[in-house]
Design a protein that fits this description.
single chain; 394 residues; mainly alpha; Zincin-like; 3-stranded mixed beta sheet
Length: 394
Amino acid sequence: MNEPADHCPDLAREEWERHLASDEAFLAERPLDAELEHKLLRRLGESWRDLNYRYLRSRLKPPSVRLHDAESRWGAWYPRRRLITIARRQVLAYTWESVVDTLRHEMAHQVVSELMGDPPEPPHGPAFRDACRLLAADPAARGDGGVSLLSPGGAGTDATPDDARLLRVQKLLKLADDNPNEHEAKAAFARASELMLKYNLDRTDLEQPLESGYEYRYLGPSRGRTPHHHYLIAGILQEFFFVHCLWVDSYTVETGVKGHRLEVMGTKANVGMADYVYDCLIRQSEALWRVYKRTHGIKDRRAKRQYLDGLLTGFRRQLVQTKAKSAERGLIWLGDPGLKRYARVRHPRTTTTRLDSADASEARAAGVRDGEKLRLHKPMPGGKARSRGRLLSG
């Protein structure tokens, strides 16, 4: 078999050419030298071994892994040569997570060839879909932010009722932020929280397969060292915003540095809401810290962690109070078994780490006071554009 297992069918040529031109301009500014390419290939090999261990109990034998310059595919599996290739273009112009998604897709083709006897069926037939389930891979090979194997920009989709509900919640949050009346602001915030709770209670009452209707998204950049308050924000998302959060291994190609990145899993509406809340909390926590630091002339480096720990503790108290009021009206969230199953399938081997809280201090107390008044808000000019996940410096 001379053709790779993942040859692209006809594409929307005009759209593809537009993305290709944009990527080529991006790549021209970021050449990959020999040392970084060596590190990159080594990291791809490590990712292959990790996926093979976690999902397949190391049943596959390691293939060769190389980069290719073909313009019409992200990846390919060559059975006779036992070779997986990944597009140089994707590695340099898109997120590492999208690269790993492509690697999973090609590993699924490898599973069909080497563990399933290469049955006589189309490349993306039933055996391939079974292999994708084994690897928790998307058969369509859509990576981070909707990066598609066939069209890297991702096809646009029509608005859904969930999108409309999400926009309504975001508008309520903005109303809470803009309203100078504290009572009305709290009422708008509570209404937004209740809308999300009712959506999830209604959804879990429906009869549907436990693993259906979920997706994942990566929030924030890859970091070699994750700030303490980012972990606290992830905890808030998981406890109050109907998503499952996990810190996953990541990699920055331009520097050759390993890191971690937050992955959130849930329904489309819940993941979108978690993205919104995460962005709000990251931006506002840093902005409020800068104001506190400047106003009080803070020079102690420990004060930032103390203040942000307090800020998020205060914000969490708001959410606890809102949750208690909903429970008084009989709106009680007992969890989503389908999401738990989806998360277990996607990440069968995980570990849990306990976080220490910051010591009591004036900075932490000030943070708590500010957190109890914090309102979520960021500009919403008609909706957030989906990032193509490029590795931008800074």
